[in-house]
Amino acid sequence: MARFAIGVDLGGTNLRVAAVDTAGTLLETITTNTAVARGRDSVIDEMCDAIEELRARHGKKQDAIAGIGIGVPGIIDMERGMLRESPNLPGWHDFPVREAIEQRLRTHVVLENDANAAAFGEMWMGAGQGSGSGDLCMVTLGTGVGGGLVLNGKVHHGMTGMAGELGHTTVYPDGHQCKCGNRGCLEEYASATAVKRMALEAVGEGRAPELGRAMGANTEITAQQVYQHWLRGDAAAKGIFDQVGTALGIALAAWINALNLPMYVVGGGVAGAWEAFAPAMMREIAARSFVFKATNDGDARRRTIITRAVLGGEAGLRGSARLAMLQGETTS
Amino acid sequence: MARFAIGVDLGGTNLRVAAVDTAGTLLETITTNTAVARGRDSVIDEMCDAIEELRARHGKKQDAIAGIGIGVPGIIDMERGMLRESPNLPGWHDFPVREAIEQRLRTHVVLENDANAAAFGEMWMGAGQGSGSGDLCMVTLGTGVGGGLVLNGKVHHGMTGMAGELGHTTVYPDGHQCKCGNRGCLEEYASATAVKRMALEAVGEGRAPELGRAMGANTEITAQQVYQHWLRGDAAAKGIFDQVGTALGIALAAWINALNLPMYVVGGGVAGAWEAFAPAMMREIAARSFVFKATNDGDARRRTIITRAVLGGEAGLRGSARLAMLQGETTS
Q1: Between residues 248 and 277 of chain A, which touch chain B (CB distance below 8 Å)?
Q2: Class of domain B4-121+313-331
Q3: B132-308 and B4-121+313-331 share a CATH fold
Q4: Which of A314, A229, A303 has its CA nearest to residue A268?
């Protein structure tokens, strides 16, 4: 019987490949720099080398490995196993990723969007574990804002595998220009990139003397640094995370009203600043979602839960491995 | 083998009860005034009388009837068969509707939210018929704005049966106050009530001389009258339906990005003014949804379709009857 699967999380900066057993334990993880600059073929080589290494080391018996799951950033055409759009992986567009990897490894692989894989991982071993439900919505606040929907225990892919693009929910119709072409997307207010932009704007307009001093001669600041200032009580940093929470709460309220799921999970790097943005987020949800109010007034077993992700960067690894395990079950 | 089911559509002004055969044909429909003012018990009596009449007339053989489905406005606690909120049915709140009807009829019934039933009806015999997909999102523009999601061929109820409350999607965070407590809900811009309000505002501010003349000494105007003015090229009416379409497009773009369904159907009375609001709606969707753009650039078989409902007021009757048929199949 299969004992483990291999999960891959291909990020803009790191490539991680792990052997994950059926209980969800990471048996071994290989981490390398993605080296996107060296090009697509080089990244795929590196990925396949790491997969083969883990397969050789943990899969001595022929039937020990349940499958291989690969989470990649970007919009995946599930039918064709291609990336339709992937701003962080130049040169991968409309390239048959799944086929190329399968040829290299001589086996079937599962290709999945990274945010979907993370949602599935949180469902299995994270915030959703033991919830007794097969439904979860996860929004990932990273460089961009991604999302994943798990419905009835399965990733909801939609017609062409593009479902879960929660970061491009319009929050402010006349708001900041997003690179997707829309204005006022959630991503423009709740991503790490947005936190940086709002900090630079505040400094430029003379509204953030402390952040300005921290920047010094640099013109760069990280979301993490803004959070450090929030921890010290800086008013400008507080204003920025209020904006993050407000935008996220407006969007979450709409999803709660539309989907009435039992759990909404917030993950990604910016979720580390949970205490800084959660009050504004919860205030907006309470004001804007009557489904939230209706579910949280009564029966405690049927509350709408809004919570932090608990697996951090390991959600995607576990989720992609789990997807491979389940696919293995249905095809074997 | 079961030959037909009974579908009920309980609206704020009409009660309709129909015998629907397994091919989707309405065999017979009984329509009465809801007479909500006469009170809950009187409405239930009337409904059960009509059901029994149809049952006697079309179900001579014991096994001819597949079941009874009842669509009601309001939020239904599916587990308990109660209405949690139903602004249009005063006195029905937290009353065990399903149980009361089942005792009267001495048989099992299916209780469903009216917008969900309409979505299910459109899926079966309307806009979604023959689409080859089990997924559809329907938004209903009536006195309020409701919605229903059909996923994998089933109504998506969510945790407590409250899913599909699409009318309370925040479109403008600082917008018009909604009676749900939120500001800027879609319902405040795309319902018949909203069309009336916007018309009265325009007249009050002197921006709509034609509409003002039509009102005369009245202080009332209907959405239908505003549409009549749109047909005559009135600029104020055009501005109002532009607002309807803009708000609807902003909300649809978000659902398309989140759910990536093959079809979104717009129904309800205001959908009769499709040509008046559709251009603004489609403009917003094109500008705001990259999932729409990505699906509609390429393969014609996988386009995101935005379309009018085709069954009109019969969608709910057919949908609730169909739900009863399917429930009958699984329980018998």
Answers
A1: 250, 253-255, 257-262
A2: alpha beta
A3: yes
A4: A314
